[in-house]
TrEMBL record:
This is Cytochrome P450. It comes from Streptomyces avermitilis. InterPro entries: Cyt_P450 (IPR001128), Cyt_P450_B (IPR002397), Cyt_P450_sf (IPR036396). One of its GO terms (molecular function) is heme binding. Keywords: Heme, Iron, Metal-binding, Monooxygenase, Oxidoreductase. The keyword Iron-sulfur does not apply.
Length: 418
């Protein structure tokens, strides 16, 4: 690890918490920072917008864990909490031709036409969930957990529908994926959660193999069964793991963070209501200002690489610091830490990176944007006086430095508008 500047590695807090104060301190030192991961594994974090954009698209940066030196040398303990991010077999851990092959199999589910076909169904589900949120508030003394009753079941319902996951499995899959992204989990819990997640998704795949439908899992199984090298069984299950986690956790955090931002900045909500900004603007500003993923593991330089003047040794596990890059003043101006839905459209060079960049750009980005836009517009139309039921500072944060949000979001919806 390069510490020639005298900078001591920043110890990543497994308990998570709000990332923004630490991000600002690290960014003040430079765009790239040495970090200590759980288990005292040495890593690096790329925090600055320009440096991250360069790093994400660099041709000599890999995703396959065969390039992860500490893992290959046996220095990561069994049950290491970040192991799944490194070893799951799927698009996010594949390079080159393998990545293109796996991405092409999944991308058919996320074409613009197919995503748009989901709009009426998403709108219908949103309305039903808002009915449920209203009922929960009536039963709970005018307070309800918006995350549990609305922000979670919406994207989980959508990804469940896309993958052909029966409703009976969805709550369990959310619980297990939450444990997989937790960074404070113990080794035995981590191993058990990963095993059960694979087991549940294997059950889902077996059901779809027996009764194929118009869903992505059935399509992937068909690709597997066609023979050749299109898809192995491990890649099938690995792809389902990635799709379940990425397909609902990020959108769940996006919706939750946007509601928090609007409730804490009522002037910005009023600008949307007056037509001075649109709901898509709220979504984009939330993605920048409070990214759903704070630090995403991992990428590995295949040779010693200098990024913004800092050497990242070959084989180092590198975190993509999306939440830090979103508030980088060098890219977003001196008011980068201010939530502003009328923020002037930035150029291509300074557009936020919260959904990735380069070959691994998020396939589900159009779907996530659609879900969040519909959710926010319908929520604040139905409940125009919605407010947080507890102060922002008292909201319990995720136990993870990967996901960036809160565990629950108690709100007072107020009187619904018909």
């Amino acid at each position: 690890m390069d510490t020639s500047s005298g900078t001591q590695p920043h110890r990543m807090d497994p308990a998570g918490g709000c990332p923004h104060a630490d991000n600002a301190r690290l960014l003040a030192r430079g765009a790239v920072a040495p970090v200590l991961l759980p288990g005292d594994i040495e890593g690096m974090a790329v925090l600055g917008h320009d440096a991250l954009k360069e790093f994400l698209a660099h041709p000599e940066v890999a995703k396959n864990a065969r390039h992860f030196t500490a893992l290959q040398e046996g220095r990561t303990a069994p049950g290491w909490p970040l192991l799944t991010f490194a070893t799951v077999q799927g698009m996010t851990t594949a390079d080159g031709e393998d990545h293109r092959r796996l991405r092409s199999l999944v991308s058919k589910a996320f074409t613009a036409r197919r995503v748009e076909r989901l709009r009426p169904w998403i709108e219908e589900l949103t309305s039903a969930l808002l009915d449920g949120l209203g009922r929960a508030a009536e039963e709970g003394g005018q307070v309800a957990d918006l995350r549990a009753h609305f922000a979670l079941p919406l994207p989980m319902g959508v990804i469940g529908e896309l993958l052909g996951v029966d409703a009976e499995h969805r709550d369990r899959l959310h619980h297990l994926s939450n444990q997989v992204v937790a960074t404070d989990i113990g080794p035995e819990q981590a191993i058990a959660a990963n095993r059960e997640l694979v087991a549940v998704l294997s059950t889902v795949a077996a059901a779809r193999a027996e009764r194929p439908g118009d869903d992505l899992t059935s399509a992937l199984i068909a690709a597997r069964d066609e023979g050749g090298d299109r898809l192995s069984q491990q890649e099938l299950i690995g792809t389902l793991v990635l799709m379940i986690i990425a397909g609902h956790e990020t959108t769940l955090n996006l919706i939750t963070n946007a509601v928090r931002a609007l409730c804490g900045n009522r002037d910005q909500l009023e600008l949307v209501r007056k037509g001075d900004a649109g709901w898509p603007d709220v979504v984009e500003e939330t993605l920048r200002w409070d990214a759903p993923v704070s630090y995403f593991p991992f990428r590995y330089p295949v040779r010693d690489l200098t990024v913004d003047g800092t050497v990242i040794p070959a084989g180092t596990p590198v975190l993509a610091g999306y939440s830090a890059a979103g508030r980088d003043p060098a890219a977003h101006g001196p008011d980068a830490d201010r939530f502003d839905v009328t923020r002037p459209a930035r150029s291509e060079t300074t557009r936020h990176l919260s959904l990735g960049h380069g070959a691994h750009y998020c396939l589900g980005a159009p779907l996530a944007r659609m879900e969040a836009t519909i959710a926010l517009e319908r929520l604040f139309t139905r409940f125009p006086d919605l407010e947080l039921a507890v102060p922002e500072a008292e909201l319990a944060r995720h136990s993870s430095f990967v996901g960036n949000s809160v565990r629950a979001l108690p709100v007072r919806p107020g009187v619904p508008r018909s």
